[in-house]
Design brief:
The protein has 191 residues and is α+β, with helices and mostly antiparallel strands. Helices cover 41% and strands 19% of the residues. A five-stranded mixed beta sheet has the order 1-2-3-4-5, with helices on both faces.
């Protein structure tokens, strides 16, 4: 081998080892294991609408989301939520993010509603959850981009969402991809 060819072979071999090592780290992080951040380039998560086949993986992420917000829902409500997410006739939409190995690493749910200040609908992003081990790796951004693209295709006037004031990790992303409205949220529980 020439010196140049030898360097090329060594570089390819090194890149394959790094790619395998990065995939292993991402896999461990997606399963919830704490791993140190590395020099691995972030992989771009793939997003797509939920299908019935996603139920088990969605359920694990959904339960993580509910735990994050210290909320319990009965199994019947969880089952009804998933049925609506995969029913094309429902007004609730959902998407799942998968890493480069195909593992589910995030979910997002949204709906549209009419407004009094526009002739078109508003798009409300209701739920967004990213597996703890992959936060900061582009999954949340990809899920928001998925909803934004859907909202633009369907003529929504705006996309908006709420988050807990204490959710500083997510707010760091939200401050980069959206503008704070300055509105304060109130609610009255009716059940």
């Amino acid at each position: 081998l020439s010196i140049t060819a030898g360097f090329a072979v060594a570089a390819q071999s090194s890149a394959r080892r790094r790619q395998h090592s990065c995939a292993s780290l991402r896999s461990r992080a997606a399963s919830g294991e704490e791993v140190m951040r590395s020099s691995c380039p972030p992989s771009q998560p793939r997003t797509r609408p939920h299908t019935a086949d996603d139920r088990a993986e969605w359920d694990a992420l959904w339960r993580g989301y509910l735990a994050f917000y210290e909320t319990d829902l009965d199994d019947a409500t969880t089952a009804a939520t998933f049925r609506r997410l995969v029913d094309p006739g429902s007004g609730i939409r959902g998407a799942i993010a998968r890493d480069d190995r195909g593992a589910a690493v995030g979910i997002v749910h949204w709906l549209t509603h009419q407004g009094t200040w526009t002739m078109t609908d508003y798009c409300y992003l209701e739920d967004l959850f990213v597996a703890p081990g992959v936060r900061g790796g582009g999954v949340g951004r990809a899920l928001i981009a998925h909803v934004r693209a859907w909202a633009e295709q369907h003529g929504s006037a705006k996309l908006y969402w709420l988050t807990a004031e204490s959710n500083t990790t997510a707010r760091g992303l939200y401050d980069r991809v959206a503008s704070r409205s300055g509105m304060i949220h109130y609610e009255i529980d009716l059940d």
